[in-house]
Amino acid sequence: YRELASATGRNTTDLARAVAAWRQGEAEGLAVLETPWDPPAGPFDRARPALAAAGFPRFQPWHNHLTHPGGALQLRFGRDGRWYGYESDPGQDEWWPRAAPDHDPVGALRELTGG
Q1: How far is CA 70 from the centre of its chain?
Q2: Which residues contact 41 (CB under 8 A, 6 or more apart)?
Q3: How many helices, marked H, and strands, marked E, lie in the chain?
Q4: In a 3-state reduction of DSSP, which class is residue 99?
Q5: Per residue in 7-27, pLDDT tens?
C-alpha cells in the first residue's frame, strides 16, 4: 500500500481518503475531495435555507463546501448536482468522505448522521 501511495504522489492516509472518495462517488467523488470550486447560483444557495428549515444549524459556506458550526460535519456540492457528506474530528481539517451522495442536501446530511 505504501508503494502504491508513493507511486501516486500521496501518503498512505491521502491514498486511503482518495479511495474512500472514489467509493463514495467514483470520478466525481474524487473531484469533490480534491477540487474546491465556486458553484453558480441555484441549488447551492438554496441548501442552507433547506437545512435550516429541516432544523439543522446554520452551515458556513466556503466555495462548494457547507460546514456544520460544530466543525465535524461537512457537505460538498459536486458538479453533478449531488451533495457529498464528509466527517472530521472537531477542530481538525482532516475531512473524510462518508455516506452516499444525494441530490438533496437534507437527505445527504441525514444519510451522513444516520438519521
Answers
A1: 15
A2: none
A3: 4, 5
A4: strand
A5: 777 788 889 999 999 999 999
